Protein 1
Amino acid sequence: MQLAMIGLGRMGGNMVKRLAQHGHELLVYDQSAEARKAAAGKGVTATNHLSEIAGQLAPRRVIWIMLPAGAAVDETIAQLLPKLSRGDIIIDGGNSNYRDSLRRAQTVTAHGVDFIDAGVSGGVWGLDAGYCLMVGGSSTAVQFCEPLFKSLAAPDGYAHVGPAGAGHYVKMVHNGIEYGMLQAYAEGYEILHASQDFKLELGKIAKLWNHGSVVRSWLNELAERALARDGDLAGIRGYVEDSGEGRWTVEEAMRLSVPAPVITMSLLARFRSRQTESFGAKLIAALRREFGGHAVRTS
């Protein structure tokens, strides 16, 4: 099947490789000339200009966008739409806010073009193991693109979850759950690491937990790998970014009046990780000194 892929970062680049391995014909574009050059190869042709994509594809065109959420996606769609024809399909496979996907679907369908939002999970491992694809869009458009989804997906790793917007909605909540799981592992391993009674080999414990334990998981397998290399994680700074989905999940929980304390606190823990010094903690220390005469540590 013929496809254009826009965006050749860690996810987009690996998805191109997996699709080419499954015999699909790809036209690729990225702002980076180096990325375009690296992607070109058997079954993959790079184009130097976004404006050339539509003219190099045969109808019914399928164009997959793998760009950071926000303005870059809107700008790309705005450049593509005038050159597309009725029945063509735009797929947004990035981590877009589902409300943006709902809006974009209205804009795109008003031009007679179909819009699919595909939440993609699997990280850098997806190239070999396959991805998990949460797909939203019309049944006809999704069915047309199904060969692509099945080539990318792990076994049973693809589902049409609803109309446009549903794919990114499901992916948003998926990532919110991920935040909570990561935080639980982080807290547990930190307790083990901080033990004053035992000098524990965290890599050994992680490996143990991956055999028969109720906390075994792929994330814990990755913890096993990381801790086997360095049980103290000495070369890593504890600074944790968030890509948006955790915030959006918390906002949606608040909108729906659904209690989500674990996901909310895991998001706030990421904010704390970025502070070299917490003013709030300083204030608590100062107040304890004021009301109770408790000692404070000075910098």
Protein 2
Amino acid sequence: MSPNPLVGAVVVRDGRIVGEGHHVYERKDHAEVVALRQAGDLAQGADLYLNLEPCSHFGRTPPCAESVINAGIRRAFVAIRDPNPLVSGRGIAALLTSGIEVHEGLCREESARLNEKFLHFIQTGRPFVLLKLALTLDGRIATAAGESRWITGEAARRVVHRLRYEYDALLVGINTVLQDDPSLDTRGARQKPLTRVVLDSALRTPPDARVFSSPGRVIIFHSPGASPDRAAGLGQKALLLPTTRTSLGLDWNCILKSLGEQKITSLVLEGGGQIAGSALSAEVVQKIAFFYAPKILGAEGLPGIGRTSIERLSDAIGIAGLDMRRLGPDLFLQGYVTGSSCSPSVQFQA
């Protein structure tokens, strides 16, 4: 569970799995400890497979590297190093010093994808950003009158809620709040409530908006010159953070820095064409998830992506590692923004 990474461990003895474990935050024990406990005496002389370097420091639990050493593991296969400054190679060094044979890089790419949010946050101090849109085939998110429920079908909406479940926070603009009055919640229970973020320069968010009805924090970013009276009212229901403006609107770099300071490691952008256009222009999006319905609205419909100031085809925003699948009648496309820290063309530093 965020802000912790997703970690799994498997102990293998004579070609047979004798221990398995994964980290569940509320149970405290890390994956290695769970797997080694299950293996018991069979861990002596066995191989250990890990998707992330074992920790080497005292936190909520003792160092896992120490547990691996004490269990008598013979070889350790580690997919990627932990970029956390508290670890960052120290866990592997401890294993090597103790005489354990260490192999790095097995399933490296898959492991990096599994923990792309954690790796990005640790390396940048800012949340990993996903841009999610539900679109018609001609790229519209609503009719000219603002009608958008529902462009995509039930299967696509289930996937949307699963995506929300995987992220710490969900962001929309004030126009989405005023037009749709969304609750911005998830289906099913969460151990850690979803944080809702609203970009609202003039603090126009109604005090009775449904965004306040779900468990979890609400954070509203606004211009420094917003009405003090509005701030006094909304300040009872949300964390209000004044933010500088740029030509694209509220300053994305300031927003993401502030969210990182709030320990938000991952963020879904769901709110409107203006939000999508400005975030892409500011180069703060790492990944896209677009849901296309077999419908056409035409030029009168509201575009999913607003102005980006792109004038030449050579400056178009590229998407790498594109994956596509069917969801009932709809299409689901996801990929990485070219040049972002998580693009397949860019190596993870972990």
Protein 3
Amino acid sequence: MALTLLAGKIPLPRMATRALLRDGHQQPIDDAVVLWFPGPASATGEDVAEFHVHGGRAILAALFATLAALDHMRAAEPGEFTRRAFENGKLDLTEAEGLDDLIHADTDRQRSQALRQLKGLLGDRARDWRAQIIEASALIEAGIDFSDEGDVPAELIAPALAKIKTLLGEIQQVLAEQGRSERLREGLVVAIAGPPNVGKSTLMNQLARREVAIVSPHAGTTRDIIEVQLDLDGYPVTVIDTAGIRETDDPVEREGVRRARARAAEADLVLWLIDATHEKDFDEGKAPVWMVRNKIDLDQVESDAAGLRLDVAIHRRSASVLEQTSADFAISASRGDGIAELISALVAFAQSYFGSGEGGLISRERQRKLLEQTVVSLQRSTSVIEHGEELAAEDLRIAARSLGQLLGRVDVEDLLDVIFRDFCIGK
């Protein structure tokens, strides 16, 4: 096997062992550390060997060349190790999705949510719910079998219905507590929009704390949409710098304006940037629109008399930030005046937007929809039982099947290819 060829022997299981790795011609490759995990007591449930080598390109090239020369040896495909762990019962699908989220986590809050999934919190609850549904179904089917025994069916169906109602309450509570937890995976989208040459790109650079957009005194410099990913107090935020919105005969700029309007209309929050010569003129979409007055350093009278103005209800009311359809900020994107206050408001908006989703169990639309299907089936089982225990038993079977799909144990072959292809190579 590969381990014997490269290291000269198989080390003791699960014990880091120093070894001189050699290629097929017995030429040294690297002084490395190897580990041996015989299945099924391994991460994937199969025999696994790990080579901890120095990271030089020549070392890696020689190691890969030696492995590639062996029969029945190939490079792993994206997500293959995790998929093998799933197929061998080491992970359920919710845990595999948690691992995928952990790999792609950009912020601390995303990492925390992914770790909860990887620990199997949702999977454990789903397994328990499925077991209870099967127990309730067994009681109802036993009642069907003893339908000619007088009071026996009633004595069996009553505890089954009680169990179903308890389950309904638990699952509905999990669904109700989610808020916008699914969005924590993708993040909040904030669009910077406004007329040309009001400082949108400068504000983008201030928020990103680096040069990500071209800044020019000429109107129409930004023709396409520029996006940057930010970590605001652990919340993932995508900030979009759009083309200046105005009437134009330039076909390229006109397309940029069309895209800017469309992207701003889809955003979760719009920062409408203006200066002293403009007024708010954006009413597209359902997202809140905050007015940001830029270039206060050029308006000396206002700057000297009032300093920075922050008329935003976030810091002054107990109402949700999401209810604030407008807010008013005064900044100087070039000098940085008012930027800290604007960022603080964005953090507060993100906090309210994601709500309690940070501690939720559901992180994907797939999970939520399957739980909603489970609830529908459970509710239907309680309403149709008076028309026949067989109908209720069938609905319970459908509910158990939905939870089986959640865990990845029923009819998920097509879904697996979609999920695991997003993993990094070899993971």
